[in-house]
Amino acid sequence: MVANEGEGSRFNLFIAIALAATLLLVLMLPMAFAAGKDTAYSAYDQSQGVGQITDVRATLGTGEVGDITGLGYVMGNTISTPMLVNDWQNPHRTLLMVIAPEKPIGETEAQAIFEFVTEEGGKVIVASDNKNANVLAGKFGLTYYNDPLFDNDQVYEVVNEDGDIERHPTNVWGLHSFNKDVSEMQEGELSTGCTETALNTRTFDACRMPVMYRGPSGIQVGGLESDDPESDEYVERDVNVLAYASPGAFIDILGDGSEGNVENDAPGDIALSVRIDYPGITAMDKLRGTGSGNEYGELAVTGSIVFFADDEVFANQYWTLERAQEAGLDANCAGATCWQRDISGGTWSGNYEYVHTLIWDMMEFDNSNLAESEKLRSNFHVVFDESRHVTGVASQPFIETISTIVLLTSDNFLKWLIILNLGLLLLVSIMVVPEKANWRHVFDLTRFRERPTKVDSSDYRQRVQKALFAKVRVFYDLTRDQMALKTPAEVQTMIGDPRLVELAYSTSRTYSPQELRELLIAIRKWGKK
Predict the structure, then answer these.
(1) Residue 498: exposure state from Cβ atoms within 10 A (0-12, 13-18, ≥19)
(2) What pLDDT digit, counting tens, does each position of 402-448 carry?
(3) Tell me, what's the pLDDT at 418?
(4) Which of 314, 417, 402, 297 is nearest to 358 (CA)?
(5) Rg of the Cα trace of the chain?
(6) Contact 274, 307 (CB under 8 A)
(7) What SS3 class is residue 331?
(8) Are 206 and 156 part of one and the same domain?
(9) How far apart are CA 526 and CA 508, in angstroms?
């Protein structure tokens, strides 16, 4: 009996040591990854003033920055993951701000945001100067460059602490429209600056505003298969480049700042900002003047996403004129290459003026079918994605834990219930474990079955071809013998789809695994019409 008690005590000790070591690793590893890294572009961290976006949160919410009073949007943040955006209430009245993603946006997160915009009518602003946002941008047919943009024609000057004028080609300005592609605007619209009156009266469709960038990259604008009206996957959308760099701008891929180097990409149409709208999405909300009053019903809304080629657009340093002047930027922009040569009647008082108006235009304030009682800014949400930023060392374990739990549920009560249960489980595990009788497993090796043989990758195409012929045979209600008597020309006529005909009979065509997966989807859809 004494020997058994000693063995039980040692076992309990081992369990306690293992749990303590696991808990230590869970706490220390996230802290080690966050050590030596400063938080930047956070809407909540005040430690580094100009390197954060706290002014954005203040002017959009209920705070104040100088003489600028907050607009009154309901502010929020997600510290775990934006994968749950489609669970949010009233997504068509919610704006997600993804500013300076320091961690790459993954496929699952990008797909969730894509559906948030295209299916739920959500609004998103993405600002990045590298490829961390490329998975998300690719969902919309865009690509971020991963190197800085040099533009000697659209550059502004700053005065340093010594009073010297600095002019660096990465200090780029761009003249932005709000909802029109600048390549389609009339000459008079391009040269008209948006005045304060135009912004206040919401008559900004025929003017442009300057926006300051500091070290931007660029955006390549491409297309999607769903843009083809003849495609089965066609989705109506409106793609507008809000601002371009100058035709002489280039991407400094080699890092030498050489404009004439052919290896530095200079396509002549590098976008600084792109807006994509998806109209006609159905949402549920209060409708204006239905029946005896405002009642809930189906409302047509527009999903919108805007991409900026620089996160500094939202940084405190350029958000207001007061901050910008502290950094040495001249409000009048008197340099020879400044925006005043291209527009008249417009001024720059900080990037906030443009962004505030852009957000108003993205939201549903101008939706004539939405009840007026719902058009208060207190009914619209702005959510900052804080999960893309490095957090403090002490808070990192908590952030990682919450991130994991949020993947299980987005209900606040259930979140804390799970945390409580985890704590109780640890306490119970540390307690004395009841001693069990000795036991052992008896393995019978004769019962093990051989694993099934994996399919050779060289047989993939043959299997896809067999699937195609089987689908065609069944569709036309033919036996195998009847199918075998058909000539190749007859079978090709039966198939109809040129891509599938090529798969069936071409001997020189080779396919990648991705192409074969796409062909499988086409086979699955074949015959349904």
Answers:
(1) exposed
(2) 555 555 555 555 556 666 666 666 666 555 445 444 545 555 555 55
(3) 60
(4) 314
(5) 30
(6) yes
(7) coil
(8) yes
(9) 24
Residue 193 lies in a domain: yes
For residues 67 and 190, state if they share a domain: yes
- 445 lies in a domain? no
Strands (E), 387-445: none
Reference 176, options 189, 164, 159, 188; nearest CA is: 189
| Cα separation, 125 vs 102, whole angstroms | 16
Residues 378 and 220: their CA atoms lie apart, in Å, by 36
Instruction: Say if 154 falls within a structural domain.
Output: yes
Query: Are 342 and 259 contacting, i.e. CB atoms less than 8 angstroms apart?
Result: no
Do 138 and 227 fall within a single domain?
yes
Contact (Cβ atoms closer than 8 angstroms) between residue 469 and residue 504: yes
Q: What does the block give as tokens for 356?
A: 């505030």
Q: Distance between CA 130 and CA 51 in Å, rounded?
A: 17
Nearest to 390 by CA among 17, 112, 51: 51
Which whole-number Å values give the CA distances from 143 to 175, 228, 266, 338, 501, in the listed order?
Answer: 21, 19, 15, 27, 33
What is the distance of C-alpha 64 from the center of its chain?
28
The closest of 97, 51, 91 to 75, measured between CA atoms, is 97
Same domain for 292 and 192:
yes
DSSP three-state, residue 476:
coil
Q: Dihedral sign, CA of 104, 107, 110, 116?
A: negative
Of residues 520, 513, 518, the one with CA closest to residue 465: 520
**Is there a domain that residue 243 lies in?**
yes
Q: Could you report the per-residue pLDDT of 17-32, keeping only the tens digit for each?
A: 776 676 666 555 555 5
Domain enclosing residue 60, as ranges: 54-257+266-389
Structure tokens at 393: 């060392």
**Residues 127, 212 within the same domain:** yes
**Can you read off the two tokens belonging to residue 330?**
């001249």
Give the pLDDT confidence of 235-269 residue by residue, as tens digits.
999 999 999 999 999 999 888 888 777 778 888 89
Residues 315 and 193 in one domain: yes
At residue 334, φ and ψ (nearest 5 deg) are: -85, 0
Whether residues 385 and 407 share a domain: the answer is no
Q: Which of 152, 80, 57, 87 is nearest to 403 (CA)?
A: 80
Residues 6+ apart with CB under 8 A from 99: 41, 43, 53, 56, 125, 127, 311, 314, 384, 385
381's tokens: 């949400």
Q: What's the length of the chain?
A: 529
Beta bridge partners of 299: 283
Rounded CA separation 277/140 (Å): 10
DSSP one-letter code for 432? P
Q: Domain check: are 71 and 33 in the same one?
A: no
DSSP assignment of 143-200: EE-SS-EE-SSSB--EE-TTS-EE--TTSBEEEE-SSS-GGGS-HHHHTBBPPHHHHH
Q: Where are the beta strands (DSSP E) in 265-310?
A: 271-290, 293-308
Torsion of CA 142, 147, 148, 150, to 10 degrees: -90
